Amino acid sequence: MVIPVLIALVLILGVVVSYVYLIAPRLNPANRAEEYLSQNRIEDAIEEYRKLLDNDPLNPVVNYRLGNLYFRKNEVDQGVIHYEQVLNSGKFSHEVDRYDVMRKLGRAYVSREQLDRAFQAFFEISRAFPADEEALYHIAFISLGQEMFEFSLKYFEKLLKASKSRSFEVLFGAGITSFMNQKLLESIEYFRESASLNSSSEIANISAAFALNKKRDFSNASSYARKVADGSGDINAALIGKRLLGIILFQWNRAAEAMSIYEELLNDAVKAGISEDIEMYLYDIGFIAIAAEKTEMAYEYWNQLYQRNRSYKKIQILTTLLRKEMEADGRLKKDSGAGAFVAYSEEWIRETFPEDFIWDICGLKSAEKIDLRGIIGRGKQAEQKTSGQSRQADVVMPGDDVIERLYELDTENFRIIAGRVVQKLGYTVDDILPTYKESDGVDFLARSSDGKNTALVWVRRWKGLSIGEIPLRNFAQAINDIKAKEGYFITSGILTPTAESSLQRLKNVKVIYPEQFGNLLQGLL
Question: Is 263 exposed, middle or buried (0-12, 13-18, 19+ CB in 10 A)?
């Protein structure tokens, strides 16, 4: 009797062992997925991993592996879903690294043109790894596209210090950012270095010429402009180069050479029958002819333009003035000379190539406006919370100095400056509403520039205070009470974590954080 029992036990044990060590592993989806991957059967591996998520949707390892597989298949949207689930789980390990996931998400967001999410991902990476070149690169260019020139320049400078090589793209971006920050000498060096790396780049050569001309280095400016004027295969770039070269030569007191260039441009426009260009060059060439002491020729060109289009810019004033200043022999009077047209010439140059010209044509301006300052502010608040700091004074952000000056204003001047901040947001103040404590706050009813939307704007200069949930809820209620479409809560104080959480549910409330407030105040104080 004992022997049969032992035999049965042995058989049962064999079955169990076989199941545990041979059959069960084969039935385990994770093992099956690994087996499929060894055979390059990616679709089958994905199906097995998805089975594991049925019971544990936030499993970080499984989601991470699925994200990798979808990226491997170039199915970015599906991969993003799983990487985002990894972050939602908040669980990381030697295999699932938080910043590796964020980096992959950041790249995906860039490819999908979700710039706000890309910026947030790379900004968080840069806080953990300040010298990370990829993070610095994306932060610099995304913030540049949003016209945050001062902030962007800091990251371009960090990137150039961290990078082992100086690429054309980064150098040119640093040049544009420096130029827009009024750092002319730095911009010239960056433009010249970028042009040396890519001598055929029209935008680099035009930018170098533009910046050098502003510095009144006409010799070098003309060299860069001539490269584009004579060597570009792009007709539009060549026209810009020729027109800029003509302006440079005009300012360099080489009007005869400038005249030759503009006569060629005019002749080409006449041959092509492009009316707008003909009128533009007729207007241009009149100023150059005066500088070349060819008064009759100037009058002839401007009179042609006047006959074609009497409302063109200031042609009526110019032809009348020139006719009065001319003597019978066709020369300008000695006592007035061409000096009567100096102011008009300067205005003409500014209109032809305004300060923002290279920024407008460089292709780095983003078509989509996003709230980067809000992302920066929230990130720094999170950093403050993590580090255990509790005082607002410990958080130092760009614009702090100008906010300090805001605190020093009397009530009336504070109200005036607050109204100008509203205008910078693109709104017109319709009414100033009663405020509980006018020394620290002012409320506006404002209208959008197109007149379609109304907004309630609260401006608060609360010093040393954090903004809790109650003020935000009161603000949301006030927006509803006056039937405004949206509201802007502009504050010099930081938000508490509870207030940040409630903000997600207050869809009609937009917070302008201290850093953004400081940037809006630039130039006003």
Answer: middle
Q: Region 97-126: what's the mean pLDDT?
A: 93
Closest CA to 110 of 82, 132, 80: 80
The residues pairing with 445 across neighbouring beta strands, listed in sequence order, are: 431, 456
Mean pLDDT of 253-274: 94
479-512, pLDDT tens digit by residue? 988 888 889 999 888 888 778 878 878 888 888 8
Q: Which residues pair with 512 in a beta bridge?
A: 490
Structure tokens at 404: 């300090």
Q: Kindly tell me the burial class for residue 40, based on how many C-beta atoms sit within 10 Å of its own C-beta (0-12, 13-18, 19 or more).
A: exposed
Cβ-based neighbours of 208, under 8 Å, separated by 6 or more: 188, 191, 192, 195, 220, 221, 224
| Helical residues (DSSP H) of 39-148, grouped into ranges | 42-55, 60-72, 76-89, 98-111, 115-128, 133-145
Residue 437 — very low, low, confident or very high, per pLDDT cuts 50/70/90?
low
Kindly give, in sequence order, each residue whose CB lies less than 8 Å from that of residue 6, ignoring residues fewer than 6 positions away.
none
Asked whether 446 and 457 are in contact (CB, 8 A), the reply is: yes
Residue-wise burial string across 442-456, b where 16 or more C-beta atoms lie within 10 A, e elsewhere: bbbbbbeeeeeebbb
Instruction: Please name which of 104, 95, 146, 96 lies closest in space to residue 125, comparing C-alpha atoms.
Output: 104
CA distance 27 to 107: 36
